[in-house]
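Key result, reporting period 2: structure in, sequence out.
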C-alpha cells in the first residue's frame, strides 16, 4: 500500500479546550484521511482529554520530552508518560527548543533514545539559521545535526523504527515571507542523498516545515523528495489547517 502523505500539526503553546473541541469536530468531517496521515501535537496538558474524545481518524504527538531518566526533574515529563496518555509521536530538536531551551545535540540524542525506547516515533527537526545560510553553511549544519543522532553509538543500539526527518529552515519558521520550494531545492537534494545512504527506501519520511499554509503547501507537497509537512501557526487556525489538508490530499 502506498505511504500516505504526512501532515504534522504543531500547535506550539496555543489552543485552549474550546479551540481543540472545535478542531476535533471539524477535522473529523474532513474526507482526506484515505490520503493523509494527520498527527496533531497539542500542548501536553490537553493531550489526555483529546485522545479520549478523539475519533480514530488521526494520531497524536507531543512537542518534546525531557530525555532524562529518574524522578528528580521538577516540571519535566518523559516519553513513557506521554505514551501512557496516548501520544504516538514526539517532536525532537525543534529550533525553538534548540534556541530558547538550549537543547543541544546531546540533549537531542537522549530525547531520541527515550522516545524510541518508549515505543514512540520521533519527528526529528533539523535546519539552519539565516546567518548560517548566508555563510553557505546550510549543508554542514544539516549534516552535523543529523549525524549527531544517526551516527551516535546510542542510535546504533536502538530497535528498528520509522525515521521521520523534518527539514525546517529556522529562517522560514514564523516568517512573514515564507520560503519557496525553489530556494530549498539544494537542501532537499542533499537530504535525500543523505537519508537514502543511511536508510532503506520506505524506511524514512522527509517533511518540510516553515510557514506552511494553504496557498503555499502544494509547492512543497509536490516535490518528489517531500512526503510530509510540519505546520506551525496554521495549525491554530481551523480554516487554514483544513485548507492544508484539502490541498495536500492526493500527494
Ligand atoms: C513550526 O513550528 O515548526 C513551524 C514550522 O512554524 P510555522 O509554520 O508557524 O512557521
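The corresponding designed sequence is given below.
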Amino acid at each position: 500500500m502506498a505511504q500516505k502523505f504526512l501532515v504534522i500539526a504543531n500547535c506550539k503553546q496555543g489552543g485552549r479546550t474550546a479551540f481543540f473541541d472545535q478542531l476535533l469536530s471539524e477535522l473529523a468531517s474532513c474526507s482526506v484521511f484515505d490520503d493523509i496521515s494527520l498527527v496533531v501535537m497539542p500542548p501536553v496538558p490537553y493531550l489526555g482529554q483529546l485522545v479520549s474524545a478523539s475519533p480514530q481518524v488521526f494520531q497524536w504527538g507531543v512537542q518534546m520530552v525531557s530525555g532524562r531518566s529518574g524522578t528528580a526533574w521538577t516540571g519535566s515529563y518523559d516519553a513513557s508518560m506521554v505514551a501512557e496518555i496516548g501520544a504516538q509521536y514526539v517532536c525532537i530538536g525543534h529550533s525553538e527548543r534548540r534556541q530558547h531551551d538550549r537543547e543541544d545535540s546531546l540533549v537531542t540524542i537522549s530525547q531520541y533514545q527515550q522516545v524510541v525506547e518508549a515505543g514512540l516515533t520521533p519527528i526529528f527537526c533539523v535546519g539552519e539559521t539565516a546567518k548560517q545560510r548566508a555563510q553557505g553553511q546550510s549543508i554542514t549544519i544539516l549534516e552535523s545535526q543529523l549525524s549527531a543522532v544517526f551516527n551516535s553509538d546510542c542510535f546504533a543500539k536502538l530497535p528498528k523504527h520509522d525515521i521521520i526527518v523534518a527539514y525546517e529552515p529556522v529562517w522560514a519558521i514564523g516568517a512573514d515571507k515564507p520560503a519557496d520550494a525553489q530556494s530549498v531545492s539544494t537542501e532537499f537534494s542533499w537530504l535525500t542523498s543523505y537519508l537514502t545512504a543511511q536508510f532503506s527506501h520506505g524506511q524514512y519520511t522527509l517533511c518540510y516545515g516553515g510557514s506552511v499554509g494553504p496557498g503555499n503547501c502544494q509547492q512543497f507537497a509536490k516535490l518528489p523528495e517531500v512526503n510530509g509537512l510540519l505546520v506551525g501557526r496554521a495549525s491554530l487556525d481551523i480554516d487554514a489547517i483544513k485548507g492544508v489538508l484539502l490541498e495536500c490530499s492526493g500527494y
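The chain has a mean pLDDT of 94. The first strand starts at residue 5 and ends at 10. This case is discussed further under Risks and Mitigation.
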